Amino acid sequence: MVNTNLPADLLKEWYYRMLMIRRFEEKINEKFLAGEIPGFVHLYIGEEATGVGVCSALRKTDYITSTHRGHGHTLAKGADVKRCMAELYGRKTGYCKGKGGSMHIADFSIGMLGANGVVGGGFNLAVGAALAVQLRKGDQVAVCFFGDGASNRGTFHEALNMAAVWKLPAVFVCENNQWASTTPLHEATAVTDIAVRASSYAMPSTIVDGNDVFAVYEAAVEAIERARQGGGPTLVECKTYRIKGHFVGDPEQYRTREEVISQLEENDPLKNFFLRVQNEQLLGEQELVAIEEQVAAEIEEAVRFAETSPYPDPEEAFDDVYVEEVS
């Protein structure tokens, strides 16, 4: 049974973060379709409980690596929504000065080492961060978020093997959202549960409902503490669902609208959280409404900030390509 005896402030923070991600992604979807945001955009809608549940168990100084759905992870780790919005708008006030965009957003100050346009690109970055912690004799943890499709890439196996051999302070979080681009899990993966692959590396694993922030948090706390205490890595598989298409504008001919609607009605992590904390009298309706009003105001302010921020100057195009020489 998942523990619900948690501080009210933590529950409020979960709802705030999950709702911020949802409203941010909805606004990005709207603005992209209106032609106001350049590049490609991949949304995190439906997976909010996984990112928030894991990141709320981390310290600010811990590290995460992300996927091409990086906005959700960035906001879950505590990033400034205004700078996130500005980055997607391509403005110089964004986290990467408007030159990273949707798939390369990062904020090193909170340990967010970057979204990644390469499937499976975050594995070895997380292992590198975990190795650096071990060599420094620190107590930080590196978390690698990845999708079910990425578990079929070579970097998955390389990273898990190395992390297990060296007992690195790493946690691998599979956001099994059932779809690798347009391919369902069962057509490309021989196992039903990605978590069973951890046994190949003598690594503990667990499977949780990725739409239940309580369950995700509980599993994350255990895995993160194990890593922090020198016990080595863990694979946590969060079963969730990608509500939107692979990218904004995806015609989604590979699945039916009935399937998506059914998932949203039954497994929406925000709706389920709202009902649960009310039914169990963990939070009051007015507290939740106040959070909704706060998020709405912050999203509108973020849009205003992005729209009024300048674009990078052309002569800045090659800035930040290389690290400055250090003595």
TrEMBL record:
InterPro entries xrefs: DH_E1, PDH_E1_Alpha_Subunit, THDP-binding
Species assigned in the record: Brevibacillus panacihumi W25
Pfam families: E1_dh (PF00676)
Domain of life: Bacteria
GO biological process terms held by the UniProt record: pyruvate decarboxylation to acetyl-CoA
Keywords annotated in UniProt: Oxidoreductase, Thiamine pyrophosphate
Record carries keyword Protein biosynthesis: no
The protein's name in its UniProt record: Acetoin:2,6-dichlorophenolindophenol oxidoreductase subunit alpha
CDD domains from the UniProt entry: TPP_E1_PDC_ADC_BCADC
Domain Dehydrogenase E1 component, first and last residues per copy: 16-315
GO-annotated molecular function: pyruvate dehydrogenase (acetyl-transferring) activity
Cofactors named for this entry: thiamine diphosphate
